[in-house]
Amino acid sequence: MPFLSKAVSRIKPSPTVAMTGRVAALQAEGRDIIGLSAGEPDFDTPAHIREAAKAAIDAGHTRYTAVDGMASLKQAICQKFARENGLDYTPDQISVGTGGKQILFNALLASVGPGDEVIIPAPYWVSYPDIVALAGGTPVILPSRAEDGFRITPDALRRAITPQTKWLILNSPSNPSGAAYDAEQLRALCAVLLDHPQVWVLADDIYEHLCFDGFRFATPAQVEPRLRDRVLTMNGVSKAYAMTGWRIGYGAGPVELIRAMAKLQSQSTSNPSTISQHAALAALSGPQEFLQGWRDDFQARRDLVVAGLNDCPGIDCPVPQGAFYVYPSIRAMIGWRSPAGTPITDDEVFANALLDEAGVAVVFGAAFGLSPHFRISYAASTDTLTEALRRIRAFCEGCDASPRATAPSSPRRR
């Protein structure tokens, strides 16, 4: 009898976490590695947030809180939704977890079981399919196209829905592509969902504050109030406020779902770190002006990286609308050989060769369900990005562009 559960066998380790660990190991060996695989802002957590955490410790706020978040933080989250999204929630409709991932995890485990399907547009954040699989559901991967801006169309969504469909996961702006849906595009998708009352929407808005070129962020519950009773809107402080290690995420949705999520959390982590909750309270309630400066910095880095990659032979890099990733295609490079002679048969081989031969760590596109691409996080300094681009260009220029030996990989369906 196997010792490990069947549930564990249904999932795999996070490819992004695995690459970050490999980079750390190589750097510990003395290798000169530029890591562009982690989705983590390089800015320090703002001083007023750090001071709030210190003050909480000094005031003795080091004990348990309510399982799914302290009342003052839930109230601040309600105020955030009203202020920034025009959404009115009450504290009993709010769940606070140990990072956005726990909110997603709790919601899906509380609602998905064998026979249930969850539509996941590709490219997708690596954990979505595995969380669904762990819950016993079936991830239904809905590929998007670069020519559509890596956004799914209403017609494609309509075709993907079956009587077994329980959720649609929408991440805008997207990890890994940076694609974002404006209000009109969201309304078109919502119009399809109105015809299918069994389908709920999990809106992953974690990159809300990282939209560029004047793009106006929108979220499903905001643009289509008739769907509100079957929308869970997830967000957090990790990306916008450079608080990845503080581990605070939150979600807003129907009371019945929020209570079920709290029940799960009561038997897993219990409350998120009390100190981190006080820091998140300061983040959401304090000054917001610095976000524009950070956004400007990220946009400048995006422009640098897009231009640099498009100067590399064999790489085609679209311009993302948000987040801090680019998702370039290496379709033209399939069948080439790396400078060291490795046949580039797919994007995973490309990423490994780039790391081994050029010392630049990226994440291969198959990890996100859409090949042949790779993801770069440009949440790094301009000097670091400039050197990485120099190495990538040298790598591409050193490749042997022999005739194509293998057709590009097709999107994976799980």
UniProtKB/TrEMBL annotation:
Organism name? Paracoccus jeotgali
Q: What is its EC number?
A: 2.6.1.-
Reactions performed catalytically: L-aspartate + 2-oxoglutarate = oxaloacetate + L-glutamate
The record's note on quaternary structure and interaction partners says: Homodimer.
SUPFAM superfamilies, A to Z: PLP-dependent transferases (SSF53383)
Record protein name field: Aminotransferase
Which biological process terms from the Gene Ontology are attached to this UniProt entry? Answer: amino acid metabolic process
Task: Give every Aminotransferase class I/classII large domain span.
Answer: 32-392
Query: Into which family does the record put it?
Result: Belongs to the class-I pyridoxal-phosphate-dependent aminotransferase family.
Q: Which UniProt keywords apply?
A: Aminotransferase, Pyridoxal phosphate, Transferase
Pfam families in UniProt:
Aminotran_1_2 (PF00155)
